[in-house]
From TrEMBL:
<dbReference type="GO" id="GO:0016805">
    <property type="term" value="F:dipeptidase activity"/>
</dbReference>
<dbReference type="InterPro" id="IPR052030">
    <property type="entry name" value="Peptidase_M20/M20A_hydrolases"/>
</dbReference>
<protein>
    <submittedName>
        <fullName>Amidohydrolase</fullName>
    </submittedName>
</protein>
Length: 97
């Protein structure tokens, strides 16, 4: 099965979004790196990521803390009123054991 190619406006939209959030994503990455936490005790990381996303609610993001009955889990949803395509990213990070 051949993977679909991402081209044109769709790819450009992804690139614009990545550029728009680049500084924030890098800051979160650095924060997680410099604040290691134990598995299922990633409260600092959880709170930092949720706070960043909550600050973007006016843009269509919605944060659900402690998703899936895990205190350090979260779900960030996005609603786009244009009806166009939405790209989704799943992210996981390793904790100390």
């Amino acid at each position: 099965m051949q993977e679909p190619k991402i081209t044109g406006e769709y790819l450009e939209g992804i690139q614009r979004a990545m550029q728009k959030y680049d500084a924030e994503l890098r800051e979160i990455n650095q924060f997680i790196w410099t604040n290691p936490e134990l598995s299922y005790e990633e409260y600092k990381s959880h709170n930092r990521i949720c706070a960043m996303s909550k600050s973007r609610e006016a843009e269509g993001y919605k944060v659900r803390r402690s998703a899936y009955r895990l205190k350090t889990s979260f779900l960030i949803g996005y609603t786009d009123s244009s009806g166009g395509r939405v790209a989704a990213f799943k992210a996981e990070y390793d904790a100390l054991l």
